[in-house]
Amino acid sequence: MARTPQDVTDAELALMHQLWDAGPLTIRQLTDALYPGGGPSQYATVQKLLERLEDKDYVLRDRRTNIHVFSATVDRDGLIGRRLQSIADKLCEGSLAPILSHLVKGNLSAKERLSLRKLIDELDDTPRR
Amino acid sequence: MARTPQDVTDAELALMHQLWDAGPLTIRQLTDALYPGGGPSQYATVQKLLERLEDKDYVLRDRRTNIHVFSATVDRDGLIGRRLQSIADKLCEGSLAPILSHLVKGNLSAKERLSLRKLIDELDDTPRR
DNA sequence: AGGATAGTAAGACAGTTTGTCTGATATGTC
DNA sequence: GACATATCAGACAAACTGTCTTACTATCCT
């Protein structure tokens, strides 16, 4: 059957957003932020979601401290990249070029075109990272 | 709980690819293409997938003919657009700009930069379509 | 006309995924 | 030692997704 699960689930994504915005956090901190006034059940939910994120290597758990601290191993831009590649794989035979051209052709104001051109100029100067 | 289902499923996407590449098709034609040598079960599977795609308005069913003919209502580029917007909504507060800059910054050869610049030039000439 | 053939229609079904929760067990503090 | 708070392990139901069965209808052929 081979279904393809989501890379990061909606509920998991909420945690990632928190970790991205507020740095390494504990389960307690995450629970308070995402389920204000939540009880032990919500705490456990956050814990389970973090466990799954850790399994998928989207999150790192620091076990040295007694109370574990979690941090994102993939940043926002990294996740954007993975999802873009996924679109490319499924719809563009793996190439990102059609996506880029879709975006450029799609909806780009004159101002955006200008800043985009400038961005390309910078890349010309900085040959390769 | 509110899980968000996929816009187009993997199995459904296979049908879309076929419809994009080979124009309007019947269930039989789709079955033969995707499940070569498939029996009535596979036929029914294709039928069910088409029914779901029709419900989601990704496919149009022509019922005038006795044997229904199916065609895509969203083209490849359209689906790319929807998925890009979905990424933007979940990761960039709805804006496509960060995605564009990700792609441009990411991995772009000198040649690609050149053709991209040319593409922008064309857009400057063709003010707004 | 009558039966084989092929189509549509409706829904059952199981395996996963995903969000949520419960209970058991440690660990540290006062 | 009691208590609050952690971790750990796993149960659970709802929904999603791919697949299949069955019933019914229309067409074609000799």
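qc> The two ends of chain B are 42 Å apart (CA to CA).
qc> done
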